[in-house]
Structures are given as structure tokens and as C-alpha cells.
Write a structure and sequence with these properties.
The structure holds two protein chains of two kinds. By secondary structure, chain A is of the alpha+beta class. Chain A has three helices and six strands, in the order H-H-E-E-E-E-E-E-H. Chain B is of the alpha+beta class. The chains are: A alpha+beta, B alpha+beta. At the A-B interface, helix 1, strand 6 and helix 3 of A face helix 3, helix 8, helix 15, helix 16 and helix 17 of B.
Amino acid sequence: MNVKVVVGLVVVVLGIAIGAVNFLESNVEYMDFATAERSNKRAQVKGVWVREQPTSFDAEQVKFTFYMKDDSDRTVKVVLEGAKPNNFEIAESIVAKGRFVDGEFHATEILTKCPSKYDGDAEAVKKSL
Amino acid sequence: MLLGQIGALIVKLAFLAALAAAFCYYQVHRTGTTRWLTFGRGGYHLATLSLMTASAIFLYLILTHQFQYTYIWNYSSTDLPLSLLISTFYAGQEGSFMLWALFTSLIGVFLMQYASENDYEPHVMSIYSLILGFLLLMLVVKNPFAFIWEAFPNDLIRTGPVPAGVTNYFVLDAAKSVWARYPVEGKGLNPLLQNYWMVIHPPILFIGFSAMAVPYAHAIAGLMKRDYNSWIRVATPWLVFGAMVLGTGIILGGYWAYETLGWGGFWGWDPVENSSLVPWLLSVASIHTTLTQRKSGAFVKTNFVLSILTFLTVLYSTFLTRSGVLGDTSVHSFVDPGMWVYWLLLACIALFGTIAFGLLFFRIREMPKVPVEHSFVSREFALFLGAFALSFMALFVAIGTSSPIITTILKGKASAVEIMYYVRTNLPLGIAVTLLSGLGQLLWWRHSKAGSLLKSLMWPTILSVILTGLILLMGWEEIEILLFAFCSAFSLFANIQVGYGIYRGNPKFVGGSIAHIGIAVMCLGFITSERYDDKATVTLEKNKPVTALGYTMTYTGYRPLERDRFAFDIEVVRGDVKKKVAPSMHFSEQSTLRHPDLINFLSKDFYVSPVSVEQAAGPKEETLTLQKGEERPVGGFNVKFREFDFNAFERGAMLEGRNFVINVNLDILEGKKKSALTLTMTNSGEGPVFTPVSYTAANGSVYEFNLVRILPDREDRSKSRVELSIKMPNDPTAPQRDETLVVEASIKPMINLVWVGTVTLIVGFALTILRRAEETRQHAKKWQRE
């Protein structure tokens, strides 16, 4: 085989390997609070905000604290590094990315999944009649 | 017939006309006779005219607020200013497909003329009409003119005579007396989209998307004609045009995110951004490999593959962002558009992929094999490596963005990759690309002599070492970032050197160098503004100056802007410079949106994003909602709502319209002590009046109770609730403060380089288009003379 072809193949294989490793590493796994606490790994937890429990915002440290119930019905205190995320109140479910620290879930990022306010539903039509 | 029904019918007509045009043009190619040509052209023009008419109708319906159309009700409202009202045309799924189709059809009118001059009309136009047909099929399936009573038939259609006083109705079938009501106000445009970027960014992106169909159509035409070389010359101006427009659209989107959406930076590796970056990277790779083929005849197959993939990734990107597959893994949450769009988009990718790769497969054996004659130190090899690295970037970005799909298949649960993935995979490739974009320009075609190469390397190398040194003075960074800075600087200086030489020879040929300079400057801007930025979260109590990052900020209060938006005025002082920023927040009942503000200095941006606003902290107040019999803890005791006291006498007074009183009886349970508390609501002609009642706890602190409102349940009285407010005792140890604004302030050094680089890049692209279009024109003239 030609030297160029060999070098080319090595580069391609190496590139794919680097890509694959990074892909797997940066794919944070979904789990529930119990699994996340046990594994002590960075995790994504899906759940809903518990409205009845207090929420607070610490302006000095810029931390937003609230309670979240995961899909296995466990409620945990979540501390987000940052302010209340956009669309937090209307989100029908939220995804918190982070890890457990002393029984609290310390999130670095919160994704909000919103019911499509900007898409139609019959109730909304009736309201605007 | 209603205007919308006419519109929907015209869209169907356009769809059929586009298919007919594709068929007729194909017949010209197959039979070789020009008999079908008139029909092909006529069909295409009919499709374009119909689509233009349908779009005009659609725009008219939007401008006249016809909310009986689901789409218009969904995305617009009467309070929007004209420019935003027009932009609701493409605020949703159906409308944006319509805009895309419209641009595609209009570009096709120019393409037809252009292709006929270059002897490519039947082939290019047959495939191009087919693409237009598929875009129109989307509109046939997802009708933008759907009526609101079609979308919600059970709720909105009534039979029988229209009651008096109902004005906004529509009689659907007079004979059966079936009528529907329709809204007089729409839901309005998403506040995130309500700014001028919404007016310019999407159209530019869609022109880019439309233009990317042209190189694809030429590649297929080349395969159909068994012409493996000259299609490239014909397609190049369009390829560069597509890359220029799409690139501009991407950067504008980045600027939108930076300036208005408050993402903090101009690039968040969000699926929406990524998915248009992939075709752009491939188109840029394609520009470089086609250049090599024109010079040496190599890369015949590569060029077919790249042109095809550029278009397929445009379709794939639409699929990713429009079909709902990314689900809740993206910050942009996309509405599930229904199975139809999902499968249609997949079918579209499959069809155009099969046509292209199938044809390529059948033709591949007869393609000319050009032996590789160039050495490792040649421009061809540098171009090859550069294009290779760009394609790999596109691949990594595409894989990262598709992560939710890949992980669903592998693990059964969708999850997105983190931003780190994109940085780690693209940074090494970025280093390679910038280095090659400088080195390639210094190399000769076929082979470079060591002596002349070293001589030309000297100045760029020296200057980029100096520049990297200057960046190092700003602080140490990862070695990869420094390497990236060095290579970007090298590309900048090498291209200035080469560009100057070319400019003295023939100014028309300088486009390539200028585009490279633009990219290099942009990369330097990325590094300084993203890696050497400084951030601080600052708590600003009203009228109390706070110094952070060398700037003294004073929050002076807020003022209302239009539609639930509030601007927060902050005075910024540094030395003698005194400026103002006013980041704003949008409070709607459902959510809070934050918009940053910035001061643009020559060497940096001072960027302020609002985080939250805290009311003045006096005695704390809590509110409670209690149902009958319910008990809740507050402070050191429990509050129980026993019952309403609303006796017959008061009820009679209410019915007769006189003043009446409702008592709310509470029990306070503190330890073993139980005390009763009665709150009253007195209803007079001017609305209810509440009387506060104090409660002194065992430790001596005083709590003030008051009613906020009574929430009666008419069906089940026992479910009636009351809302209470309880003012907590004054705690002298708690901090007292005025209204406070929390902001995140940051400094983005040299961010202007990004914008300067962008403009330079666009100029470079534009010059290249002019040069290549001129070449093609010369060629066409020669061909027509023969």
C-alpha cells in the first residue's frame, strides 16, 4: 500500500477515535435522583418543579434553590448556579444537569420543556374568541 | 370561496406545475428534442407565479389580522408593529417552509436563464424543479391557510341560528345553519422573537438554504450529462453565493444571540446554530476542492460527494430542528409538528440521497482517473488537507447535534452532548484549518521549492510569533488555544502578504485572500472575547455605586417599556467615561425573559445581563392559601382555616345590594395553646375592604394577619378557599435593603474583531463570486459562438 494511504487511514481512524471518546465522555447520562446520588457522577435528571415547596434566590451568591420531584417520585432540593431559568414557571417538565453534594443536587444547567404556548390548543382559542 | 381556500388551491397548483416542469425538463434531457422545453419553462414559471400569488395572499391575510386562520392566530396579534407583523409570515413551521419555497422558486428564475446560457438548462432545471416540488409538497400537507375551525372543529363549530350579540362568527353552511366563531385577537409572536433580528435573520438563512440546492442540481446535471468537469465551473459562483449568504445568516444569528437573547456569547453550540453550520462547513470545503479540480482535474468524485452532501445536510438540518426529534434535549424546544412532517422530511432526504448516490454509483467507473502528480509541499495537498479537516468538523458537529437520536438508538434514552464535546473535537481541526489557510496560500501548485517557500514564510512567522506574544501578555491559556491563536495570526499575515502581491497583479483575483483574512481575524476575535473574557456577578442596590471589573455601576431604577418589558437603568463610569446601559426584562404571566445591554468600546465590549430584581427587603410577608379545615405551619405556629361566618342576615344584604360582611374564622395552634382569630371582609359599593388583625406569639413577636381574597367554590362549598397574608415580625438582625438588581457583567476583549472579520469575509466571498461569474460568462460566450 501507498504511504499516503496508510498515513491517511491512520489520521482518519485517530480522528474517529478521538471523536468517539469525546462523544461518550460528554454525554451526560439520564438517571433518577437515587441513581445519581449513588453513582456520584454528573447526571441529568428529569422531573417537575414542586410548586408547594419554597423557592428562593440568593442574590449574593447567585443561586436559585427549589424542590424538584423526579420520575420515581423522589423530591430533592436543587441548587442551581444562576438565576431562575427562562420559562421556569410554565415548564411542564424540567431537566437538571449536575451532581449530588451533601444530599442536595447542585445543578449547573436547567433545561425547561415548555408546553407550546405559541402553538394552538382549543382552550386558548376559546379564550381569544 | 374564501381567500385562504384560493391560496391553498394555488399552492396545490404550484406543486403540480413544479412536478410537471421537472417531468418536461427531464423529457428534454431524455429525448434530446427541444419540444418539451417550452412546457418545462412554462411549468416552472407557472409554479413560481402561483407561489408568489399564494405568498401575497398569505401576507395580505396577516396584515389584515384574519385570525380565522390557525397560523395567523397562532403567531400574530393586532399590537405588533408592521415589520414584526410581516415577520410573522415565517414565525412558524408552515410559513417558514413557504418562505423557503418562495426563495427557491425565485432563485430558479435566474438559474433558468443562467443554465440555458451554459447549456445546462434541462438537466439542472429538472432536478431543481423536483426540489421545489418537494418543498411545495410540505405546504400541501401542512397547509398554512388552514382555518381555525378545521383545527378545532369540536370546540368552535355550532349549529343553529347565531345568537344576538355574537359578532365574530362565520357561517360555514347557510343551508344547514352551521356556523363557527373565530378569534378577534391572535396569540401573538413569542417575545423572544420580537426584535429587528427576527425581520432580517431568517430570510437570509433561507436564501442560503435555497441557494445550496443549486450546486446539488448542477452535480446531478453533471452526472446526467456524463460531464464530470465543466459542471464545476458553472456551479462555482452559486456555491460561493450560497456559502456567503448562509455564512452571513449564521453570524447574524450569533449576533442576535449575543446582543438580544443574552446567551453571553455569540455561539452556544445550540442545535439550531449547529445544524446550519454543517452545510456551511461542507460548502466551504467544496469551494476548495472544486478549485483543485479546475486546476489539476483531481477530486472528481470528492466534488460530487461534497456538493451532494451540502444539500442533503441542509435537508437534514431542517429535519433535526423541525421534526421534534431533538425533543427536550435542546434549549429551543420545538413543537412536535406531527408525524407527517417527520416522515416527509425523511422521505425527502432519502429521495434526493438516492437519486444522487445512485447516479454517482452508476457513473463512477467511467469517471476520469487523474493520477496524483503533486507533492506534499504543494497547494493541492494543502487544499486537500484543509477540505478534509473542514469535512471532519462538519462530521463532528453533525454527530454531536444528532446525539439525542444516536443515544436513543444506543441507550434508549435521548441525551445531548455538552459544549465541551464541540470544543475538544473542533479545536484541533480549527488549528489545522487556520494553519493550512495560511500555508496553502504560500505554496505553489504542483510543487514548491524549499528556498522560495522559506523566504515567503519568514515575515508571516515572525509577525505571528509577536502577535501570539501580545496575546500571552493578556494571560496564560491552554496550549491548544495559544496554538490556535498562532495559526490564526499566521493565516492573517500570510494572506495579507499573498493578497497584496495578487492585488498588484490583478485586483479581481484577490477575493480568496480577503476571505481568508476575514476568517483569521474572526478566529482571533473568538479567542480574545471567549477565552480572555472577565465575568462578575454584581448586586446593585438602588443608587449605591458598586465597582466591578474596573467599572463603577449605579443602578438608578427601572422604567416600563412596551408590552410588559422593563428597562433597568445603570450608570457606568470608568475614569472620565460615563455611559449608560439599560438591560431589560420581560415579565409575562408565564415567564421572565432577560435581554442584555452592552457598551461597545473599540477594544472591548462591556456586557451587562440582568439576572434578577429583588424588591426592597422590609418585614417579610408570606401568603397562604387554605381550604376549609386545612392546617399549615407559619413561623412558629400552625394556622387552620375553620370556616366562613356568613350568616343569613349578611347574605340577604348581599342579595339586596347593601353592604355586607364575611368573617373568616381561623385557629392558631401554638404548642398546646389554641386561639381563635377572625378576619373580616367588608363589601361596600367600592369593592371589598379587609381589616388586618394582629396575633402576638408566645415569644412576644407580633404577626399581622390579613385576608387577600376569598376563593369560593360554588359547586362544593366545603372546597372554598381563602388566601391570607401574614406579615412576619420585624427581625432587627435581618438585612434591610432597598430594591436590588443583580446583573452579570462581563468584558469581552477585542470582540469587534469578530464583526470586522465577518464583513471582510463577506467582501472576499463577493469578490470571488464576481470573478467566477465573469469566467463562466466568458466560457458561455465561447460556447455560444461555436
